[in-house]
Design brief:
- The structure is a single chain.
- By secondary structure, the protein is α/β, with parallel strands linked by helices.
- It folds into two domains: 140 residues, 3-Layer(aba) Sandwich (Rossmann fold); 86 residues, P-loop containing nucleotide triphosphate hydrolases (Rossmann fold, 3-Layer(aba) Sandwich).
- Helices cover 49% and strands 16% of the residues.
- A five-stranded parallel β-sheet has the order 2-6-1-7-8. The protein has a three-stranded antiparallel β-sheet with strand order 3-4-5, with helices on one face.
- The radius of gyration is 17 Å and the shape is globular.
- The protein starts with a strand and ends in a 10-residue tail after the last helix.
- It binds 2'-deoxycytidine-5'-monophosphate (DC).
- 2'-deoxycytidine-5'-monophosphate (DC) binds next to helix 2, helix 4 and helix 8.
- The site of 2'-deoxycytidine-5'-monophosphate has 14 residues, from helix 2, helix 4 and helix 8.
Length: 230
C-alpha cells in the first residue's frame, strides 16, 4: 500500500502532540514527534556541559545521536537511555529551540526524520514538516491557537506532571520567546506552507480538532474511507 505522510506544524502549545498521537493511533500510522529529537540533542549537550551555541559541536551531536521514538507506550530513547521525561524540562525547551536554529543540526535530524517515514505511513509533527521535511506530504495541517490559550494548556500540562502550577505569566513569556525564535530564524523558520490547511484550536475541544483534521485527511486522500476506522 502507498505510504502516506500527514504533516502537522504549528507553534508550541497548539495541541500538535495530543492530536498527532490520537490521529496516528486512529489511522494505524506511526507517530513521529520531531520536537522530541531537537530536545534530545539539547539534553545530550547539556549533560556534557556543552554550549547550545557551539554550532560545530551541536551538528556533530545531532549526527551521532541515536534517537528512537515509540508511541505505544510513548517513549523517547537517546543512545539507549529513556529520556521521555528529562526532555520535557523548561530549560530543555529553550535549549531545543536554540539548537534547532543551527542548519547542520536541522540537516542531520531531517535526514533521520525522512528515514523514519520510509517504511510506514506517518503522522509527523513539528515546525517544518510541510515546508522542508516533506514538501510533498499528502496532507498538511497548520495547527495554531491564541498565545494565552497555548500558555494555559501548558500550565495545565505542567501542573498535572508536577504540582503546583507554574506562574501563567512566565509560561506565556517563555512560549512567546520560543515562538519568536522559531519564527524568525533563518533556517527553516516556523511558517504555514501555502498548501497547508489552517486549523485554529483556540475554542475547539481535542475531539473537535481531531474530527476537523480527519475530515481534511479524507478529502485529500481519494480512498480515504480505508482510514475511517472509527
Ligand atoms: O514541539 P516542541 O516544543 O517539542 O519543539 C521543541 C523545539 O524544537 C521548538 O522550540 C522548535 C524546535 N523544532 C524545530 O525547529 N523543528 C521541528 N520540526 C520540531 C521542533
Amino acid at each position: 500500500m502507498r505510504r502516506i505522510v500527514v504533516a502537522i506544524d504549528g507553534p508550541g502549545g497548539a495541541g500538535k502532540s495530543t492530536i498527532a498521537r490520537r490521529l496516528a493511533a486512529r489511522l494505524g500510522f506511526l507517530y513521529i514527534d520531531t520536537g522530541a529529537m531537537y530536545r534530545a540533542v539539547a539534553l545530550w549537550a547539556e549533560r556534557q556541559g556543552l554550549s547550545w551555541a557551539d554550532v560545530g559541536i551541536m551538528e556533530q551531536l545531532a549526527q551521532a545521536a541515536d534517537i528512537k521514538l515509540s508511541s505505544d507506550p510513548l517513549k523517547v530513547v537517546l543512545n539507549g537511555e529513556d529520556v521521555t521525561e528529562a526532555i520535557r524540562r523548561p530549560e530543555i525547551s529553550q535549549g531545543a529551540s536554540k539548537v534547532s536554529a543551527i542548519g547542520g543540526v536541522r540537516r542531520a535530524l531531517v535526514d533521520k526524520q525522512r528515514l523514519m517515514a520510509e517504511s510506514a505511513s506517518v503522522v509527523m509533527e513539528g515546525r517544518d514538516i510541510g515546508t522542508v521535511v516533506f514538501p510533498h506530504a499528502d496532507v498538511k495541517i497548520f495547527l495554531d491557537a491564541a498565545p494565552e490559550t497555548r500558555a494555559e494548556r501548558r500550565v495545565k500540562e505542567l501542573a498535572e506532571k508536577a504540582p503546583p502550577p507554574p506562574p501563567r505569566e512566565s509560561v506565556l513569556s517563555e512560549l512567546q520567546e520560543r515562538d519568536q525564535r522559531d519564527r524568525q530564524r533563518a533556517e527553516s523558520p516556523l511558517l504555514q506552507a501555502p498548501d497547508a490547511v489552517l486549523v485554529d484550536s483556540t475554542s475547539l475541544t481535542v475531539e473537535q480538532v481531531e474530527e476537523a483534521i480527519l475530515k481534511v485527511i479524507r478529502e485529500k486522500i481519494a480512498n480515504g474511507k480505508e482510514f475511517a476506522r472509527k
